[in-house]
# Entry
Amino acid sequence: MKAGKVATQPLWFYDFVSPFTYLLLEQHEKWPDFDFTFTPVVLNDLYRHWGQSPAYSVPAKRTFLYRHALFRAEQLGIPFKMPPVHPFESMKLLLLATAVQGDVQFVREIFRFIWREGRDPSSDAVFAELCERVGQPNGPELIKDEAVHQQLRRNTEDAIQLGVYGVPTFYLNKQLFWGEDALPMVLYCARTPNWLDSKEVKRISCLPSGLADIQP
# Structure
């Protein structure tokens, strides 16, 4: 992926640790008709860069996050089963998807393994099982390649340059759309891109902060 500040192609940023990213991918048939490049990034590195605390680090927020994910899944009619632990280590999965430049079918199969079957992919044995499932039995060897590690780091750095701060995030027409619930906005802006150029959208997009310790 060549992203950074000059990216022009549609991108979709994801990390397998996010249940809402799974829910958005399960709605792929509703997405705008663009050829999105599926781009794995390390969510915790995004958090660290922007000085954010992960949602699951706040006990009450963690509880709500899991309940909300289940509620959305039931509301949307999407099969959903939380893995036995969360958060889990997703690095091996991200490296695997990076190594094979995973397309929608490949990435969706990994998400379903975790969020539909409720599996914890962090152990070596379960990861090996997953690699067999997605047709990459040599996955444990693939992810050792330093070039793959470097590419994942570049993906994450490029995402940060674009302003990406969480997943799932669409990058379309040089604009960011974050979250599973942003899909209606993505669809609207794909059909009506000039909405983002409207006077009120421009006004609220550059509002000054009223607090000295918050940078716009």
The mean pLDDT is 94. The longest helix spans residues 59-76.
